[in-house]
Amino acid sequence: xRIAFFGGSFDPPHxxxxxxxxxxxxxxxxxxxxFAPVGTQPLKRELQPAGFADRLAMVQLAVxxxxxxxxxxxxxxxxxxxxxxxLRTLHELxxxxxxxxxxxxxxxxxxxxxxxxWHGAEDLLFxxxxxxxxxxxxxxxxxxAALPExxxxxxxxxxxxxxxxxxxxxxxxxxxxxxxxxxDLKEDISATEIRQAILVGVEGGPCDEHSVLPAAVIxxxxxxxxxxxxxxxxxx
Length: 236
Ligand code: ATP
Fold this sequence. Notes:
- The protein is of the alpha/beta class and about 240 residues long.
- It has one domain (about 1-190): Rossmann fold.
- Helices cover about 30% and strands about 20% of the residues.
- It has helices at about 15-30, 50-65, 85-95, 110, 120-125, 190-200, 210, 215-225; strands at about 1-10, 30-35, 70, 100-110, 130-135, 150-160, 165-170, 175-180.
- The protein has an eight-stranded mixed β-sheet with strand order 3-2-1-4-5-8-7-6, with helices on both faces.
- Bound molecules: adenosine-5'-triphosphate.
- Adenosine-5'-triphosphate binds next to helix 1, strand 4, helix 4 and helix 6.
């Protein structure tokens, strides 16, 4: 099986997340994408408006009905209270898979461009192949500049399909992995803007929740009164 790990806050999960997962399935011939809501994101420790249980429930609702999309508890809050590190999570997932399974890590362009700040960034890039989805406003032209020191692009990137590139990465010890760049889906949606729109009650604006959230997620947010101001403190 060809499986992609897709970690994130999903606070809330939106149509942009679903769109990039489905684009990755199509372009990379994946069998499955595992949506893994993160317990504590090291780079967003103070910024988690909804608790893990709500984010998990919303992701379950968002992916329901598409058998290629699954929810994973791999990045659930840790018993020791530590942050969830993608490197550790990918190692755990690799061990749980069959040897013949192929593992990918799916990330949006904005996340990939912060890679140098991630725990064990160099090892992370060689833990599996990466799939990067373009995101409006984030230029992937200087992808090479986002690579941790010691990792370089080897050879010339290959065009797999219009807008879809395969880049070979290498370090001095000859460790190698592939970086696949998907075309920009122009899904100009962000969870931050959705939370803001709900907070100020924007309906029909540029970030109208009806056009950017799955219907079941809207119902969940309404039923549980999420993002309306009272629960905006950090809750892992
Ligand atoms: P926030 O605005 O709270 O940062 P987000 O949707 O950007 O929310 P996450 O929920 O952590 O953040 O996103 C999970 C992954 O999905 C990340 O890798 C992010 O880059 C990617 N992603 C989110 N929205 C888009 C989008 N519209 N286009 C491409 N990638 C996206």
